[in-house]
Amino acid sequence: MHDTLPLLARSDFPPIRRRQLDTLQVNLGYKCNQSCLHCHVNAGPNRTETMDADTAALVLQVLRARQVGTLDLTGGAPELNPHFRDLVRGARASGVRVIDRCNLTILSEPGQDDLADFLAEQGVEITASLPCYSPANVDRQRGDGVFERSIAALRQLNALGYGQPGSGRVLNLVYNPQGAVLPPSQAALEQDYKRELALHFGIRFDHLFVLTNMPIQRFGSTLVSKGGFGPYMQLLRGAHRTENLDTLMCRSTVSVDWQGDLYDCDFNQMLGLHARLGGTARPHLRDLLQRDGSGAAIRVADHCYGCTAGQGSSCGGALDALPQSQAA
């Protein structure tokens, strides 16, 4: 696999700094039941990295000490971590909003028969990957049979109240482009998704999040192999919008890897660019017990243009579509 960091490190991306911490995005490990081309984590069934019980317990300590409002759980498939459910229970008991970055097919994996019921009981917000409403496109990107299993999972979640008006059980979907292009308008594509999924499958959901593919890990390596890395970076840089700098999620989010190390975002985590919090070269969750990093400089490189290009991109979708309460 090609290392794209040397191609990204020299950058003129504008300097930015942290604000008050309001979200911990925690990667519970890189093991996943799928291997997707666009995956910036390079997750898959053969990955063995997984967060241990002591580090998961430290996550809960930090949530309480820093009064963090949101715990955003990701992977890999975060549900495959053996401490996933204890972490969810502990966070919810403290009144923390919990987001599960779910690939949908995990709900039909052996040993996960009660997962959907657990998520519903705990009031977990589900943000689920569904890169298209077309079976052929989804299976091409994620593997044969993935679309059918995803639809079955969405129906199961709908039956539990997810995506249904007034239920309080939030179901969001995530779209990634299939190639080296910027995603289309989030608002327009959300309407297409809602129409097609309701018409053909009777499925309802709350919001669609449109994400830009990042030129790192598996996707970045593929771009290099096919000679498309340079043109894609030109596309991202050419579409940069200065107004998106103010709403970048890295300003109020800390990304935590499976070992408890801290980064400014999930993408920096995959590039090995540790956050600069309190001057520590390799900050850890333990450091957040003492300080939240407000005012610290955020580490930037050329891949950051992927978050400011066009309508902007974050784990909450297009930046220009975020409510003001989520944009700080």
Task: Give the secondary structure arrangement, pairings included.
Elements: H1 5-8, E1 23-27, H2 53-65, E2 70-74, H3 84-93, E3 97-102, H4 115-122, E4 125-129, H5 135-142, H6 146-159, E5 171-175, H7 186-201, E6 207-210, H8 217-225, H9 229-238, E7 253-256, E8 262-263, H10 266-271, H11 285-288, H12 305-308
Parallel strand pairs: 1-2, 1-7, 2-3, 3-4, 4-5, 5-6
Antiparallel strand pairs: 7-8
- Cα Rg: 19 Å
The appropriate CATH architecture is Alpha-Beta Barrel
What fraction of the residues are assigned to beta strands by DSSP? 5-15%
Domain count: 1
The SS-based structural class is alpha/beta
Report the uncertain regions.
324-328
CATH class: Alpha Beta
Total count of helical runs of at least 4 residues: 12
Q: Give me the count of strands.
A: 8
Largest sheet: 8 strands, mixed
As a percent range, the share of helical residues equals: 25-40%
What CATH calls the topology is TIM Barrel
User: Which strand order spans the largest sheet, edge to edge or round the barrel?
Assistant: 6-5-4-3-2-1-7-8
Task: Summarize model confidence as the mean pLDDT.
Answer: 91
Distance between the termini: 36 Å
Order of helices and strands: HEHEHEHEHHEHEHHEEHHH
- How would you sum up the global shape? globular
Walk me through the structure:
The longest helix is centred in the middle third of the chain and has 16 residues, at 186-201. The protein has one domain (5-326): TIM Barrel (Alpha-Beta Barrel), CATH 3.20.20. By secondary structure, it is an alpha/beta fold. Helix content is 32%, strand content 11%. Helix 2 (53-65) runs parallel beside helix 3 (84-93). The two termini are 36 Å apart. The protein is built from 12 helices and 8 strands. The protein has helices at residues 5-8, 53-65, 84-93, 115-122, 135-142, 146-159, 186-201, 217-225, 229-238, 266-271, 285-288, 305-308, and strands at 23-27, 70-74, 97-102, 125-129, 171-175, 207-210, 253-256, 262-263. The protein has an 8-stranded mixed sheet. The protein is globular, with a radius of gyration of 19 Å.
